[in-house]
């Protein structure tokens, strides 16, 4: 047995209940993992509210965590008891003290990265790696536009793009986020709700436009993002925080020979080799000093409902992590 946060119905944070649950029997390709830190993501709140109907109920939410391997199945060769690991998975079940999980979903942690940092940043780090190295490979001299530049993925994108030699323009939704975007490496920061960011991007780039837009906002910025592109520029719509992007004519891409993608990080890490390669690139960027991951705010796992309320308040500026205390 172990303890976990269980949902029996969708709704507000109060549907997250602390309960004793039975551990699954470990199979040959799996490990028994003792969680030490669990990431809290907007995805979790969408599952809890019922916006995403992807968790069978009753069920344990959570897709990202870090911890220590306690036991391994007979076919597991890559890990041993005592190894520190992290994972991101669409199979849910992270909001638990312990879980049985397939070894192929795990990545080994560098000695210098704490489990709190890993749990608060792995999904964001893999997403940023996908965007700056695979979806559009940022190179020196590129103009890059990053929406939600003070957000979790946005700050990593800004830092990484600047490290690669790009000129970075960021947008934010409120005045208090402006200094955070500058601290993340932006050369210019625009408040997209209060100014015409398309006109400002044209002004900043001398009318040339940007080679790539990383847009996690969606409906409110999508069409403007397309206007900001230079010839042959690429728009990566990796999130839709403001709502779904409305239907549009694909011929809108034709005048400047632009391209568009809606990338999923889970497709980019769909095999163990792809996953571990992406994680190595992310860890290397962090170890080289290209990425500064902010200190997280931690709460006890049994306080997951409070963590969700904090996340949905949107005034929080630090990542949230659930720490796991054995009991």
Explain what you see.
The chain has 327 residues and is of the alpha/beta class. The protein has 9 helices and 15 strands. Strands 3, 4, 5, 6, 7, 14 and 15 form a 7-stranded mixed sheet that branches. Strands 10-9-8-11-12-13 form a 6-stranded parallel sheet, with helices on both faces. Helix 2 (115-135) packs across helix 3 and helix 5 packs parallel to helix 6 (222-228). The protein is globular, with a radius of gyration of 20 Å. The termini are close together.
The biggest sheet, with number of strands, parallel, antiparallel or mixed sense and barrel status, is:
7 strands, mixed
Gap from first CA to last CA: 11 Å
Give the helix tally.
9
**Count of strand segments:** 15
Structural class: alpha/beta
Shape: globular
Proportion of residues in extended strands: 25-35%
Helix content: 25-40%
Mean pLDDT, all residues: 95
- Poorly predicted spans: none
